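Chapter review: from sequence to fold.
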Amino acid sequence: MEGLSQRCPLPPASQGCPRPGRGTLVLVLTLLVLMYPLLRGLALHLHSAVTGSYIPGTHSIAFVNCLNEQIARDIARYFWKGELEESTEILLLVKTRTSKIGELSNYVRSIHPFETPEVISLPIDQGNPLYLKWIEENVPRD
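The token string follows.
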């Protein structure tokens, strides 16, 4: 023990705790940067569990080209309440402000014959500037 204390002496009490060196700081910052996606994901899941809200990015939309309507029907089968469904659906695209999606979803649920109608939102990243300006000018703000 004496040999250890001679090589690594403790600072006198008047000097306080030793400060970490730059290497320690770099290590901590590197770990935080590397762990950020994991920590963010955990925080989102915890927030979702507590509030019951949806975590963006959990689901995806797949656009599938089909040669004909029969192939589309074969692909589009799904189960609803334990029964295989093969209903024909028509896709309606509604362009609106992101802030209006909740209002739109409530409206569709109020008039739609399905118990759980599909209403999903995709952000518009880019597009025809004239068309996007038209949406901006014609869809009222909140």
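Two observations follow directly from the output. Residues 22-51 form the longest helix (30 residues). The mean pLDDT is 81.
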